[in-house]
Structure formats: C-alpha cells, structure tokens
Amino acid sequence: MAEAAATFLLQKSDNWLSKELSLSDDVKVGIKRLNSELSMATAILKDLDAQREQSNQIQQWIRLLQGVTYEIEDVLDMRAYQISHQNTHWSIAVWSGIGNHSIGSLIKEIEANITSIKDMRTSNEKTVSPHPASTSSAHRESGIAPLYTPEGEIVGVEKQREELASWVLDLERAYKVMFVVGMGGSGKTALVKLVYDQLKTDFDCHVWLTASKSVSSEELLSIMLSKLCNKTAQHSVNPSQALQDLASTLNNYLQDKRYLIIFDDLWTTEVWDGVKYVLPRNNCSRVIITTRRGNIASSCRESWVDVHRIQALPLGKARELFRRRSIPQSGVFPSAKGQSLWVNKLLGKCEGLPLGIIEIGKVLSREKSESELKKLHDSLQVEVASGQLSSIGRLLLLSYDDLPYNLKCCFLYMSMFGEYYLVKRRTLIRLWIAEGFIPTTNGKQVEDIAEEYLQELIERNLMQAGELDFDGRPQTCRVHTLMHKIALSKSETEKFCTIWTNHRCEISEQTRRLSIQNTEFTMANKDMWHLRTLFACLNTKTAIRISSGFKLLKILHLDGASVDSFPNGIDELLLLKYLCLSNTRIKLIPSSIGRLQHLETLNLKHTFVTAVPNTLTKLAELRHLLICRYNFNGYLSFDAVIGFNVSTEISKLTNLQKLSFVRADHKLIRELTKMKELRKLGIIDLPSNSGPILCEAIQILKDLYSLNMTSLHREEVLHIQGIDNPPPLLQRLYLKGRLEKMPQWISKLHDLVRIRLKWSRLRQDNNPITILGELPSLLELQLLDAYKGDRLDFLVGRFPKLKILDFDQMEELTVIRIEHRALSCLQKLIISRCQNLGRIPLGIENVAQLKELRLGDMPRQFVEPIRRNGPMRREVEHIQKIHSTHLQNGTHCALDDLS
C-alpha cells in the first residue's frame, strides 16, 4: 500500500506547486526535490511489491519508505492547515507530536531520511537476490489438490454438475465456451473435473490445461499441442516453431475433430484472446474455463460464450462436507451442545466456501474440546493468516496479490467495516474519493471511475454485491467473511488502518485510519495529529468530543452514532473532506461549518435538520449535499419526504453534483441554472406558478441523471410541459403531483431506466403507457394514483426491457391486459391498493420471465382465486414467489406466502 500512498502524495504535491499558495521559494524547491524522491520511491515500491514476502530486508525497505511518505504527507497537510487557518502562525497544540520545526527544516530531515534509505538499499542489494513471489506454491496447491479429490468427497454440486453436463452435451450450437466463475476455494476445478472425467470419452480428443498467472498464450498453445500429439503418433512437435506456425498446426489438427478442452485457473484476458482464435468453432466442440476473474468472462461478448457462477454451499451441505472431512471414520457430528455451537459458528464463518470448510475440518479431525473450538473461532484471523489455516490465506491472497496497486487500497478499505457489514455503494465510492484513491482524469467524473473500480473488485470475486438495484448495480456490498480476515490481516501488516474493538489495539504515530467498532471510545484529550480517517460504526455508543489533537482529520464517518447535536470541535477540522452524521438526532448545523473549506461530502440523511446556514455557501469544494428524512407509516404518504431550506446563494457551490431534497422558491429555482455540474436534483414544495422558470432551469442542467420533483401539495399541478430539450443523460425521473397531461418531452429520454409517477391523476385520454411504452431503456415503472382510466393494455413491442412494474392506489382500474409475448423481460409485478381491480392481469400466464408477484392490501376476491387449488392458480403457477401483505396497525406485519 505504500506505493499507492506515494502516488497519491505525488498528485498532492503537484497540486500545491500549481496553486502556489504562499509558499516561499525555499519550500517550493524543497517540495520539488521531494517530488523527485517520491517518483523514485514509487517505482521502487512497485518493483518490490511482488517480492515482499520473500525477504525481511525488502519488507524493511518498504516500511521505511512508507514512513517517509507519511512524513511528506505531514508536511503538506501542516501547510494546508496553516493556510486554511484564520491566522498565519502555527497552532502549537496541533503539532505537539511533531515538534516546533519550520517547514523548511522538516523537508531537510525527510531528505536525509530518504538518503539513508537509499544508502541502506544500495549496500544490501548485493546480498538480497530477487525471488519469484511466494504465491507460486499456493498456485500449485490451488491447481493440484482439487484434481485428486475423490468423487465421493465432493459435496453439494449435484445440481451444478447436472447443469454443466447438460450444457456440454447440448448439440444445438456448433461451438460453445463456458466460463465457470467463483472466488478462490469455491470448488470450480473440482466441479469441472467431475464433468470432464464423466464426458471426455464422448469427444474425439480432450485435454486439461492448467493456466498459471505467469503462463503466456504461446506457452499454453505449445503445451496443448504437445499433450494432444502425445496421444497421436502421426504428429510431432517442433519446440522452436513460431507462434504463427504453432497456431496453424494446432488449428489444422483440431479442424475435423470434436474436442473438449479445459483451461483451469485462467488469470488474464490476454491469454484467452491469444488462444481463442486458434480453436476451430465447429463439430459441437466445447471449451470450459475456470477463473476467479469474472471480468474476463464479462469482456467476452460473443454469442457462443456462456457464464456459470459457482454457488456457495447451503448450510446442510456444508455440514455434510465438514462431517466427511473432519470425522471420516465415524461420520459423527459433534453432539455436545457447546461443541456443536462453536462448530456451527465456524461453519458460518465459511459462508459455504468449500475450501474453508475442508481446511477447518482437517484441523478438527481430532476431537476438540469446547474451549479449543472457541479459541479457534476467536483467533480465526491469525489462523487464516499464518496459523493452522494458513492454506486458506495463501489461496485467497492470490486474488489480492493479482490486483493492480490502485485497487488494493480500495479493497483494504473494507477492513474499516465489520465483517458482516453491508456498505452502501454510494457511501463507499464517496469515501474512496475523499481518501484520494480515485485518480482524476480529463473528461471523466471521479464518481464514474470509482464505480468501475467497485465493479472490477466484484468481478474479481474480492467483494460481493449485496442487494441489487433495479438496473443490476449493487445497492450494498461486502466481503466474504474469510476474505475479510485477509483484509484485516493485510491492513495490520501494511499499517493501512487500525481497528479499535474492546480496547485491544495499539494506536501509533503511523496510524492514519481508525475504525471504532462496537465499543466505547472517548476522543477528548487525545493527541492524534497523525490521524486522517475516523470511523465510528453503527451501534457504537461513542462519546463524540473532537479534541484539538484531531485537526488533520479528513474523513469523519459517524453514521448512526449516539449524537444529539453537532459535535463540538468539528469546525476546527479545517482539512475535512467528508463528514457523515446520517442516522443521528442532530437538528441544527452551526454557522461555523463555513470554515470547512475542503469539504466535498456532507451527509445528513435521516437526521432532523430542516435548514442550512448561509455560511454553507462558502464550501466551494462541496460535491454532495445530502439532507432528507422520510416519515414512513406503512405506505409513503405524499408529504413523506422532509427536505430543507437553503438560501439562494447555494448557486455559489458550482462543484455541487447532488442536491436533495431542497424546498423550492422562485429565486432558488432561477439560481439553479448556475449549478451546471448538478447530476442529481431533488426539489420539493413546487408551486404551480413555478412551471416556466423550472422548465428553463431543467433544460440548462445538461448533466442531470436523476431528477425528483414534488408539487406543493397533492392537488397542486406540476406545470412541466414547457421543456423542449430535456437533459439528454437523464436516467431516473420522479414526478409527484398532479399532471394535466403527460409531458411529451419524456419520449425523448432514450436513456431513462426508471420513472415513477405519483398522484399524477392523468385523465383517461392521457394514458401514460402510450408514451412510456416507447422508451427503449426503461427497466422500472411505478404508477401510484397516476391514471384515472379503468383499463391498461400492454401490447407486443412496447416496454422492450421493462423488468419491474408497480401499480399502487389505481382506484379506477378494473382491467389489466397483457398481450401474448408482451412484457417479455418483466421479472417483478407489484399490485397494491387497487380496490376495483377484479382479477390478476389477463395474459399473465404468458409472461415467462416473471419471477415475483407481490400484492399489497388487495381485496379478498382478488387474492383467493390464485391460492393453491384456486380457479386461477394455473395462470400464476410459473411464478416462483407470490406474496400478499396486509396493513395492520400502520405496518406491513401480515405476510401471506402464496408461492
């Protein structure tokens, strides 16, 4: 991680020099020299990273260089704080841990340290020879062990085995490739080996190839040809033949054959790209590739490519696998209450990962007492990293070691959260940006780059998506429990962050990030000038008093902390970039918040704040202003969203990207035209006469991708017909309030994926689906009291991509009809409070992709016929989930499972 820190500091020091903020000539020259040294250090760190496990000397160099990068960061941040401070002299209390030095003398000390490290490295280079990374043995383990696992010891893959074998034998297509994707230790190789051994004799020729991280496509082709030719005497192999000749020979050999080829443990797209064009696509041949890298599979767009993602073992199968591996003779599962409890907890940590279950089973193959089981459970992180379960750690580390350096720090950031914590995608992205992990590039928003980073980590199976949004993006994400142990261990050795739990940790001068998890921590009177990031995770009862020793803090994340008012001392954190006080009980923002000139994110969602001070408009770097609260009582009412008041000077925040939910007035709407960087806008309490200026403002905000507009009250009309050129990138549109007619400009929104019309009350001659059905990208449609007509017809060719359809409180609606082959992509249908709808939609039995039918407070005559043995049951028999809920005492507490 030191190389990532050094790269970030290079950007920061360049920024300082470009701004030329009150820097003396000596300081400028000093920073330039440090820049040069940092460039060299970064190059060295990248070279050493692959060797670091081989040499204590290399690890020592890295630690020393990391210390230097921290010293440079201190110098730059001290200067930044000094400039941000109202007076020009040093605040002695802040620097008590450093000493009362001038910035020039600090630079000289750092240069001396760098020279010392360079001399040390030069003198030791002759005695430290380069070695290949230690993970090579782990590669061998990961590839060999599953190949020799007896079939009887492979558990829980019966269905996946049947599906894969069926795919191999299916003769509909002349040529097919299957990527079998899963995290390390998930059983990819074992599954494919079962199918390979079962079916290989059905093919004219077959070969199993293990691809290591270092293998090239040329080497793989050579090995393939050699293995195939060893089975056929009429061909010979010339080891020196060129790649083109090699490819031609192999292609000619396979041309008239039906072949089965396995590429096990593929790591790079480049290797597959160099191999795939050699293989003839005929004769119903099959290729199966196992990989941890889902992004390799995702990059293949050909119609003949399929993807199978390995599923985790359910608890019952996990227990069965554990029995076979831990007690092979008797097969007796620990029966004592205490033993069984701790074994089940250990299995829970494995989360269905066969590798973890097998290795823990081996450790427990000899009888263990309850106290021994508890000890293993409590020390799992140490055991996985370097103890009895280190084989798990070595195999999982292969995925981490394969990451480019800029993604390693993004992954390690997950150690800041508890092991079962579901992190919101947007929260994580904003944190990464505030940390400086995401590079700035011309023409691309940092938020978009961060989204790509997250997707790559998920594709590489280092992170997992939690609940998915309607467009397939994760709303939340986490890491597998065993991978979380790896992150914690790496964070500890890399000094990436410190986790404070039950007071069992050491906070040193190199601690840059501190996460307080499920324990109390008093911040008062602590000198932590070295700290840059502070987390207090949910459910932590923390005494929040920010002392003067925290003044270099840049990230303060106090989501759900026990806070009633704005914590004292925050206005002294002049370098703060990210402040989250969401899910707290604060009501007021102090005017002194205007001092936080570097603030980029202010998250006050689900608090009681209803206004912001005028001084907030001084925060020129602010990108995300999130203030809202929901009054939820069963169903969301019209006035459920509680926004905030803001002065018209908000338009000074020209970098602002997200502004929601703000209360409207005419002056504010006019000022919105100056905020051309806005990407998400939520505006409430819109009066009818605001229509013309609102339409003008929306047309100017060309970068909007999310727009949420709510009228002053339920009967107030939203006059938004006057938009001729809507924002071309708009993806999400939420309209709440009366509409006299359906806005024609919506038909121009070709990128729109979600639209929600609430209380629109369109007349029968303004059927909304006439326009909405033509939208090519629409995935989700919600209509809540949006249409006064009695009938909706969904025709073939309309709504080509719609996945979610939601009707709520459509009181006049009596019939919904779905034409045969219409709504071909629909997966979820929700119908709530439509009291006059007499029956389920006509034609629902033809919507083949429909997986879920959810009913809310629907009348009995609607629900009863689709129960089992009901007269209309056959029409919904193909739907996997059918749920009906009824509102009782203000909440949905009555759930009726009709599946």
UniProtKB/TrEMBL annotation:
Disease resistance R13L4/SHOC-2-like LRR domain segment(s): 530-854
Domain Disease resistance protein winged helix: 416-487
GO MF annotation list: ADP binding; ATP binding
Domain Disease resistance N-terminal, residue spans: 6-87
Annotated Pfam families: LRR_14 (PF23598), NB-ARC (PF00931), Rx_N (PF18052), WHD_DRP (PF23559)
Organism superkingdom: Eukaryota
One Gene Ontology biological process: defense response to virus
Sequence similarity: Belongs to the disease resistance NB-LRR family.
Name of the protein described by the UniProt record: NB-ARC domain-containing protein
Origin species: Erythranthe guttata
